[in-house]
TrEMBL record:
Belongs to the cytochrome P450 family. InterPro entries: Cyt_P450, Cyt_P450_B, Cyt_P450_CS, Cyt_P450_sf. It comes from the Bacteria. This is Cytochrome P450. SUPFAM superfamilies: Cytochrome P450.
Length: 410
């Protein structure tokens, strides 16, 4: 990448650096040049203003671990209620704002967290482990029967889909269909769905959730949907959008960390052997998978009052983007940031965000990854890439469109 080093913005509210390249442009993130770009910004503690374009109101960008952590700290004067990703429009705000967990704040956010949190907590791990082990065994068996597998399409989406069905309380009889739909909506583009687009598949899931909500209104159980309904404060629509939050939160990110685990085993072959020899490394390896893959590329907030972050003045009402994937490769926190170190400790990555909106599904994601790494380290000898990874064209999700591999089994 030949772009010159950027001049850094001078401090002071009137001296905004106007950067002409729109950092919301998804084409910037389809190649690994993004790491060179972020490295330059992180090393220079850059603060960059992108003019209105991909985001109608423009936005500030922060990259270093220190700046992004400061923005996400519980005391920082920022809100998610207008939206939490590039593309939000202050004139046409997200109608989920103040109703959906990830875009609500204050008392309502706490109330939703208290209702939804127990369904995603570590306490549910023993129940979910058997679902996971069954799914992972099936994945491994299927892969063993194939010469080559595109893990981005056929493996990554399956585990999160099964787990989200379990969390939401989808009856067993409906799960195969829901898992297929979720796989299709979040990356699989299953050919058995003929011409259905991923957007239509997502709508089908929401229709299904709506039917589930009607059914649970009549016959409540002890599942997430019934808990949200019987609380009495949420309308059926509120229940729907919060199920959608869990659906997207659980699928859109985890599938890329799962796919990335195969990429890691190919790029750093010693890791597979290290985990085979020493299963005690599994926990630190899981954190490193989340840091290295960093599927949640950014989060956005809007300043609720004038604030200074890392010497940059930000005015009330201005949107600010924290690039989590850049901060997770900040060499000041992570020596050799592009290397995968299974035993990296400390590993204060921001892959799950930070502060009040820290990922509510982090415990589940960790369990999914741990079980996967455990099984692969026992069964697999090596992973070969059949072609270079194809990256998603997205400024929000750092993820794989395609990762075709051939496995060597033990
Ligand atoms: C929030 C990342 C897995 C559900 C978040 C946030 C990040 C994130 C960065 C913060 C968003 C913000 O600050 O605006 C990830 C990554 C995952 C993962 C990298 C996997 C590797 C999951 C799973 C679930 C889930 C498995 C559920 C099944 C949620 C929910 C929130 C959230 C409900 C909103 C929390 C709140 O606003 O209080 N996630 N996530 N996530 N995530 Fe995850």
């Amino acid at each position: 990448m030949n772009r010159p080093l950027l001049p850094l913005p001078a401090n002071g509210p009137e001296k905004k650096l106007v950067f002409t390249m729109d950092l919301g442009n998804p084409d910037l993130y389809t190649t690994e040049d993004r790491f060179t770009m972020w490295q330059e910004y992180v090393a220079n503690d850059a603060k960059i203003w992108s003019e209105p374009g991909s985001s109608p109101n423009g936005f500030w960008s922060l990259f270093s671990h220190q700046d992004v952590s400061a923005m996400l700290s519980p005391k920082a004067p920022f809100t998610s209620e207008h939206g939490m990703m590039i593309g939000f429009d202050a004139q046409n705000p997200d109608n989920a704002g103040g109703r959906m967990l990830v875009v609500s704040e204050g008392k309502w956010h706490s109330a939703l967290k208290r209702l939804i949190g127990p369904f995603l907590s570590r306490l549910r791990a023993p129940e979910l482990e058997s679902v996971l082990q069954r799914e992972i065994k099936e994945i491994v068996e299927r892969m063993k029967a194939e010469d080559a597998t595109d893990v981005a399409l056929e493996v990554g989406p399956r585990l999160p889909a099964a787990i989200v069905c379990e969390v939401i309380g989808v009856p067993l009889s409906d799960r195969p269909r829901l898992i297929e739909l979720t796989n299709h909506a979040f990356g699989g583009e299953d050919s058995s769905f003929n011409k259905m687009t991923s957007g239509v598949a997502h709508s089908e899931i929401l229709f299904y959730f709506y039917e589930l909500i009607e059914e649970r209104t009549k016959n409540p159980g002890d599942d997430l949907v019934s808990t949200l309904l019987t609380d009495g404060r949420l309308s059926a629509d509120d229940v729907l959008i919060n199920c959608n939050n869990v659906l997207i939160g659980g699928n859109e990110t985890t599938r890329h960390s799962i796919t990335g685990a195969f990429h890691i085993f190919q790029a750093f072959p010693e890791v597979l052997h290290a985990l085979q020899d020493d299963p005690e490394l599994l926990d630190t390896a899981v954190e490193e998978v989340v840091r290295w893959t960093s599927p949640a590329m950014h989060v956005l907030r809007v300043a609720t009052e004038d604030v200074t972050i890392g010497g940059q003045d930000i005015r009330k009402g201005e949107p600010v983007v924290g690039w989590l994937s850049a901060a997770n490769r900040d060499a000041r926190l992570f020596p050799e940031p592009h290397a995968f170190r299974a035993d990296r400790k400390p590993n204060r990555h921001l892959g799950f965000g930070n502060g009040p909106h820290h990922c509510l599904g982090a415990a589940l994601a960790r369990i999914e990854l741990r079980e996967l790494l455990r099984e692969l380290s026992q069964e697999a000898e090596a992973v070969q890439l059949n072609s270079d990874p194809r990256w998603m064209r997205s400024n929000l999700v750092q993820g794989y469109q395609s990762l075709p591999v051939t496995m060597e089994w033990r």
